[in-house]
């Protein structure tokens, strides 16, 4: 079925990092969505020029409210405007929800592994929030790679996720004082500990820059994860 464009109004903007924002929009008659899906956002200039970009949904459905995660891309055409210039109360157009492969469902009872690189944590945050609401779903492990502690999105949600959510941070540029693990990219040892928590055919979700996703996915297969169980979403 062909999805139509809907009018969405910006009602709130929240800073996640110095360059990342959560945008909360209301979309009348929003049909709902699954954790991990995304939408297309369309902006139309006064002269009729249009630009369309895709953004992940950062939270489960909440009536007619949706949350998007926007990372400012230097010299980008759309992201700087959405992140800092679009006025609260202004309208844009959205189309979705889109994507039925990279999704986590609340009825999933097997332990699951989520691996995020940078802003790739956005759709995984939706999964974590949906997991918290489900109550009966299997435990989640999140391995989150960020440049520094200041670059972590959704810190309160991740650190307050409860016993059924295990979050492990990997810092690539600067780690907190006293950190046992020195700064560096996600390594086999990091993944090995996370994979040990899984069972046969546990779902694995990997999201981030293309090179990150390919490296992590290859390492997961080497560690015994079934390729059919690994679902990826990449950008850049």
UniProtKB/TrEMBL annotation:
Keywords assigned by UniProt, alphabetized: 2Fe-2S, Iron, Iron-sulfur, Metal-binding
Keyword Metal-binding assigned: yes
Family matches, as InterPro entries: Cbr1-like_FAD-bd_dom (IPR008333), FAD-bd_FR_type (IPR017927), Flavoprot_Pyr_Nucl_cyt_Rdtase (IPR001709), FNR_nucleotide-bd (IPR039261), MRET (IPR050415), OxRdtase_FAD/NAD-bd (IPR001433), Riboflavin_synthase-like_b-brl (IPR017938)
Domain FAD-binding FR-type as annotated: residue spans: 3-104
Name used for this protein in its record: Ferredoxin-NADP reductase
PROSITE patterns per record: FAD_FR
Coiled coil: none
Species of origin: Actinacidiphila rubida
Reported cofactor(s): FAD
GO molecular function: 2 iron, 2 sulfur cluster binding; oxidoreductase activity
Native organism taxonomy: Bacteria, Bacillati, Actinomycetota, Actinomycetes, Kitasatosporales
